Amino acid sequence: MAKLIDIKGYWNMTYDLDFNDKDMWEGQILLEDDGWFEGIVVDPNSSYKEDRFIFGVYHPEKVIELFKFTPIRVGAPYVFHGKRDAKGYDGKLEVIGLFGPMPYGNSHIITQYAETVRQGIEEESQKLEAKIQRYKDSIMDKTGKEFYENSIAIRRTMVESILRNYEGKYFIQEEIDELKEEFEPVNDRVMQSTEEEVKKLVKKMPDTMFDDDESLPF
């Protein structure tokens, strides 16, 4: 059964390790036994008050990799990396662009099992499940849907590789070959999608960027 966890995240775009309640989001996640989680958070100080969707890999007391999404018209997606320290999980924050993640600052995440501080969490878990489904059905846009579905398709690879990277353990060739069956089809889809988006961007560029005798590079 998934564990209900309260979660709060901070960011600092100046790469300092000072965090405050202005640049912060908070909410809850449901953590599965294999380390995969999904949840809903809000940014209390943002003008956008709708739910934001988070998901990723969390190995308690070790490491967390958290993707944070809202419709692309509102803001870019982010990935928060964190390794356990005395007060939570510290790491880098990256913004996810067309060509992959780019450095954006530092992050700090704190978590707490809901069952340790209050009762009646079964109902809370059900409400969170409903919020997650609502986001997927009514708020998630095409960009978020594609990224999420690709991540789900390589869920096992992500869960295992993040933990092994943290522990400094390597995959043997037999394991790599087995995981390739999972992630190579996704990698092919991502590359094709990226190529299509680049073509669209190039076609939107002003004609004056190319000589009259030159055609588009695609």
How many helical stretches? Answer: 4
What proportion of the residues form beta strands (DSSP E)?
Answer: 25-35%
Q: What percentage of residues falls in helices of 4 or more residues?
A: 25-40%
Distance between the termini: 49 Å
Largest sheet: 8 strands, antiparallel, barrel
Backbone CA Rg: 19 Å
Multimeric state:
single chain
**Structural class determined from secondary elements:** alpha+beta
Shape: globular
H-E order = EEEEEEEEHHHH
Largest sheet, spatial ordering of strands: 1-2-3-4-5-6-7-8
Can you tell me the residue ranges where pLDDT is under 50 for at least 5 consecutive residues?
A: 193-203, 208-218
In round numbers, the mean pLDDT is: 85
Keywords:
globular; 4 helices; single chain
Description:
There is one protein chain. The chain has 218 residues and is of the alpha+beta class. The protein is built from four helices and eight strands, in the order ββββββββαααα. It has an eight-stranded antiparallel beta barrel with strand order 1-2-3-4-5-6-7-8. It is globular and about 45 Å long.
What are the SSEs and their pairings?
Elements: E1 3-12, E2 24-31, E3 36-42, E4 52-59, E5 63-69, E6 78-84, E7 89-97, E8 100-113, H1 121-139, H2 142-153, H3 155-167, H4 173-204
Antiparallel strand pairs: 1-2, 1-8, 2-3, 3-4, 4-5, 5-6, 6-7, 7-8
Short account of what is shown:
Helix content is 35%, strand content 32%. The chain has 218 residues and is of the alpha+beta class. Strands 1-2-3-4-5-6-7-8 form an eight-stranded antiparallel barrel.
